[in-house]
Amino acid sequence: MSEKLIVIGGGAAGMPIASHVREKDQDMEITVFTKDRHVAYSPCGIPFVLSGEISSFEELVMHDVQYYKDKGIDVQTNTEVTAIDLGGKSIIAEGKQFDYDKLGIATGSLPLIPQIPGMDKKGVYSLRNLEDGKKVKEAMNNAEKAVIVGAGPIGLEVAAAFIKVGIDTTVVEMTPYVLPCVLDPDMASLVQSRLESLGVKVMTGFPLGSINGSDHVEFVTVGKEVVPADLVIMCTGTRPNTCLAKQAGIEVGETDGIKVDSAMRVTEDVYAAGDCVEVTNYITNRPCLSPLGSSAVRQAKVAAESICGGSAEFDPVLSPTVCLIGDLQVGSVGVTSHVAKQAGLIPVEGKAKGLTRARYYPDAKKIDVKLLFFEKRLIGAQIISEEGVKERIDALSLAIKSGMTVQQLLRAETCYAPPVSMVVDVLTLALEDVIDL
Questions:
Q1: Region of residue 102 (left: phi > 0; alpha: psi -120 to 50; beta: else)
Q2: Active site residue 181
Q3: Does pTM surpass 0.90?
Q4: Residue 435 CA to chain centroid, in angstroms?
Q5: All structural domains of the chain with their residue ranges
């Protein structure tokens, strides 16, 4: 008899677990259960459908159910798993029991929605999946004034999308500056300035107080201010979806994510991957979450290898991040100054401004770089420009994992051609700023 694998969740971790196991084991019986109607889609693309840069939500779907069925993977959509019995090695879905030999938990995350008066008003939406996106897209047709609650990457990408289609937009962020999880205040101010130049009103330092209106939202309160709105989008972050795991007696860590070992193993026959798991920060060596599609896919590959008897390991994370806000690319890797100081690491910083091309070459863009060092080793980087951000963040991610010092980075050779770089790259200028301190 072939073994049975059940995977709970059909997102960025669940479907890759199933696919990679199938590649390694043609005989295993694989079933995926998901509450969603769609599988294998990119929620990160939703803001760009809202802006019209991507024509439809269907384009965000990488593969349909039939694609997986053709590979011998049974995908049960619109099907909620309500219980896991670890001792009996079974799950309950839609009132029926399904036995497993191996179990993959990829339940993802849930919106972190604050308890605010008026959340039940019409015109208030969260934005976690394609169905949410479709509802917001429909609501945009009759919206004139929108409030976006939360100034993380998704919130700011949605703000830029709304402004692009002519909706008067206000962003409300309870922390003192935008993108607090990925930028320091000085770098965040550059992003806020760009947003304001696009026409976005940014209100930081105060939480959303209330959502008001008779039946449909008409205005919100922020501190002592009243902000008119007929559309409110909650982009207030996420939390690991571990309710099912906790009910089954599975241990969660201090971040509320499922505790796994380096093989993504929970118990001998249970594995977990994606937004629902707790991982380790490479710099601080502390538990953290890494709710990125790239992290989910890497974890899924490790989990699949482990399920099939292999010995792959998932390393501590740097969580390199890039987002596009209007035409501005914002990237970061490693820790911010705030996170470093919380961990007892007092960083030395180097900053530089430059251009993405030779100064005489047409359409050169401004680029701002901030590097953080502790005991001469790189621990964080933040870059903002209209081009050239991702590749620099990727390179710096490799540099951090390699333990490179300021002097080693200064000795690194960089390429030059007028259409794509200055003769002395802006990263080198930021490194020289460290030396001058």
A1: beta
A2: no
A3: yes
A4: 33
A5: 4-43+56-109+239-307, 124-236, 327-436
